[in-house]
Design a protein that fits this description.
The protein is of the alpha+beta class. It has a single domain, classed as Gcn5-related N-acetyltransferase (GNAT) (Aminopeptidase). The chain has three helices and seven strands, in the order βαβββαβαββ. It has a seven-stranded mixed β-sheet, sandwiched between helices. The chain is globular, with a radius of gyration of 15 Å. It comes from Streptomyces pseudovenezuelae. Keywords: Acyltransferase, Transferase. GO terms for molecular function: acyltransferase activity, transferring groups other than amino-acyl groups.
Amino acid sequence: MSQLSIRLALPDDEEELARLDRAEWSPLHEVLPEQRPPYRPFFDERHLPEDCLVAEADRRILGYVRLGFPTGLDANAHVRQIQGFVVSATARGRGVGRALVRAITEEARRRGARRLTLRVLGHNTPARRLYESEGFAVEGVLPEEFLLAGEYVDDVLMGRRL
């Protein structure tokens, strides 16, 4: 892999990001059913290109992370939430995910956030370890919140101060 770069997504990235999202779908990290045609758009009024960072090398997108607000309430507008995070299977274990987490943390800070939160499935041990190593702590657990592939899975809320 040549030099990794992290940048804001562009509207022209939509097709490649949508393909990556579908290719990496797994009940390990996804609670929505696997997408079938016709596919929903990757970008919409809630998920804008400027709220998404992409990791790329050799002009190929290797992963992305989305930043959003946990609610529409003014009372917690100081909080941002990771609302989507995917790394290509071919790029895992090479620092791409860590680079994206660090970049989105800085982006949230740059946008004035005081806290950054996320939700992760309890059985997604690799993601939980990554988040913990980057300063996130478990702040709550909803036991057996999801039924995925015949198994009940916890929904884990993690967060950190910025």
